[in-house]
């Protein structure tokens, strides 16, 4: 399993990630993180500096070998003189390579740019999808919710007997948390995505087999939303992220239609 890390600066309370080791190396090479950058240690269940972990520091900030001068043997001088006749490397070419503007390194800069775009759209997109999912799950049972709220604590067992409402409440809370930028909530969303795709998909398919015609469509919608939500919390690849958001959006749209609108039209 690929290890992923959430990071943040010591001065900020907002975390970023999750990032793989390869992504952290890229951020380190571009100067966006340093050994003082904090990462979340799952074993300690606390934030720690990357430099405090020898294993992680050696991977993200590998030590470069220092160059030293030594006396060249006479037998090698002729070979060096021959090599000196080749065209020297220009300073402009070195600077262009460091900035990622050469043909060989431009793809690195372009990849980083697309990842930044993915990070910019993932938070609002996932948060909005969760709020729409909450609305589609709670609305069909709004009478039960209203009755339970009127009864107070005594109405809690009634809510616990309605799994759609429980999923809807979780999506509502999760949507608000994600829109606030708390990406640490992503693992909980992945668990919700798997439970939603499995449990709700099975429940609606069972209803379809018992004669409820729209049950199959609701099962497919639940599985599409769960799959899209799960993938969108894992990747920063722009096309894959966009495809997963569209998949989750189709799942929410299908649930809204077949659980709420279809009953009013037919």
Can you put this structure into words, describing what you see?
The chain has 266 residues and is an alpha+beta fold. It has two domains: 4-60; 122-265, no CATH class. It has eleven helices and four strands. It has helices at 21-29, 54-60, 74-83, 91-99, 106-138, 142-151, 156-160, 163-179, 186-209, 215-232, 238-265; strands at residues 4-8, 16-20, 38-41, 46-49. Strands 2-1-3-4 form a four-stranded antiparallel beta sheet. A hairpin with a 7-residue loop joins β1 and β2. The model has no long low-confidence stretch (mean pLDDT 79).
Detail the topology: elements first, then pairings:
Elements: E1 4-8, E2 16-20, H1 21-29, E3 38-41, E4 46-49, H2 54-60, H3 74-83, H4 91-99, H5 106-138, H6 142-151, H7 156-160, H8 163-179, H9 186-209, H10 215-232, H11 238-265
Antiparallel strand pairs: 1-2, 1-3, 3-4
Helix pairs in contact: 5-8, 5-11, 8-9, 9-10, 10-11
In a nutshell, what does this entry contain?
By secondary structure, this protein is α+β, with helices and mostly antiparallel strands.
